[in-house]
């Protein structure tokens, strides 16, 4: 089985760290193929970043999904998720959607701990879109820049732990969802410290992707997830047209 793991930002070291986290949970025989866009932001921390990154996700799906059994979009904003599902019949999972589902299996209420406070509203909108308002008790920012998570030392891990403990107490939550793919390498450590399930969306999405692919399930080709209608594309994306 081959899973195309797309990091929607353009930081190669983060792509490799996310891939390592994915390979750590992948089943024997599952190949994780990591990719990132050829253009776009170094990190995704606002609506503008997401808009550009979504186009980069579409680029990578268009170029690589034909050889994949499933696709995982490894950014907590799930940028370009619907476009990716149009572009391939392989199952496509976003890590936020996967993490919310996983948390709902483990606790009646969960909280999200993410990076910049300004991105909390983006996560809250995803909670609403995916129908988890009753289970998600709160979304909390740490104001840690995404790229600072690379090689995170004790101070940053402690900062995330403190925010998670406060969220558990304030929200009366039974689980924590990590709201950034860059937090994936910290999942096991934080779970041990907090004593509650800590869900990394990268790992959850990989396992769900394996399950869907093993079941032989494909993205529906009817309605809005039908393949895009053929037409020429102009300029720098001319090679991505149908």
TrEMBL record:
One of its GO terms (molecular function) is amino-acid racemase activity. Its EC number is 5.1.99.5. It holds the Pfam family Asp_Glu_race. It comes from the Bacteria. It catalyses: D-5-benzylhydantoin = L-5-benzylhydantoin; a D-5-monosubstituted hydantoin = a L-5-monosubstituted hydantoin; D-5-isobutylhydantoin = L-5-isobutylhydantoin. It is an enzyme of class 5 (isomerase). InterPro entries: Asp/Glu/hydantoin_racemase, Hydantoin_racemase-like, Iso_Racemase_Enz_sf. PANTHER family: PROTEIN DCG1. Belongs to the HyuE racemase family. This is Hydantoin racemase. It comes from Ramlibacter montanisoli.
């Amino acid at each position: 089985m081959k899973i195309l793991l797309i990091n929607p930002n353009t930081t190669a070291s983060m792509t490799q760290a996310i891939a390592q986290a994915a390979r750590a949970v992948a089943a024997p025989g599952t190949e994780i193929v990591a990719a990132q866009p050829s253009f776009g932001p170094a990190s995704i921390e606002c609506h503008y970043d997401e808009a550009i990154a979504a186009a980069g996700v579409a680029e990578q799906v268009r170029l690589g999904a034909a050889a994949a059994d499933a696709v995982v979009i490894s950014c907590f904003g799930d940028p370009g998720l619907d476009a990716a599902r149009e572009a391939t019949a392989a199952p496509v999972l976003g890590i936020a959607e996967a993490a919310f589902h996983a948390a709902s299996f483990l606790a009646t209420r969960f909280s999200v701990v993410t990076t910049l406070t300004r991105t909390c509203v983006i996560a809250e909108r995803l909670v609403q879109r995916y129908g988890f308002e009753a289970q998600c008790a709160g979304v909390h920012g740490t104001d840690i820049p995404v790229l600072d998570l690379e090689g995170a030392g004790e101070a940053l891990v402690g900062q995330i732990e403190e925010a998670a403990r406060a969220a558990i107490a304030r929200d009366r939550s039974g689980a924590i969802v990590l709201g950034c793919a860059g937090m994936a390498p910290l999942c096991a450590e934080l779970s041990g410290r907090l004593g509650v399930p800590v869900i990394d969306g990268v790992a959850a999405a990989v396992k769900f992707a394996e399950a869907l692919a093993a079941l032989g399930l494909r993205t529906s080709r009817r309605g809005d997830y039908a393949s895009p209608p053929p037409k020429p594309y102009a300029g720098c994306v001319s090679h991505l047209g149908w």
